[in-house]
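Appendix B. Raw example, untouched.
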Amino acid sequence: MTTADVSVRVAWSQDAAAIAAVQLRAWERRYDALLPSLLAERGLDPETHAAAWQASLTRPPEARHRALVALERVRVVGFALTGPATDPDADPAVDGEIGEFTIDPGHLRQGHGSRLLQAAVDTLLADGFTRVTTWVDSTDDALRAFLTSAGWDADGATRELADETGAGTVKQVRLHTAIA
């Protein structure tokens, strides 16, 4: 029986371009109508986006900020960002967050998300967090269903993210789970 060559590891600075590409492909799918204004607002093209990822991976804000990548062989097919929770009602000593959880649209439903989520939770637990939150677009039924099937639940918090051009907003709900 052949097994797939898949894994999750801590991201390296050399992964910056691959992470940026996965994120841009996911944004194209997720924010189709808003994407042109988002990219213009942030001055993003693939090269500047990769450079921003390079800087972030090289110099994270603190030791508990981590980027993890899901791999298929040596190709990055997803990533997650973990660290202390940043919401005003959070205690960053014990509340962690998954700041972003993205699987390349061409690699969904292949197990990468499950492996990446488990690795993110294991990383947060090792960093001393006991509760984890993440924000999910209110229209992303697939991600919300995936997370709730893994034991996450909405905690009642919502927010709206607006782009600076006024072209649109993204409504989000916050999910949480206890990990210790």
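End of appendix B.
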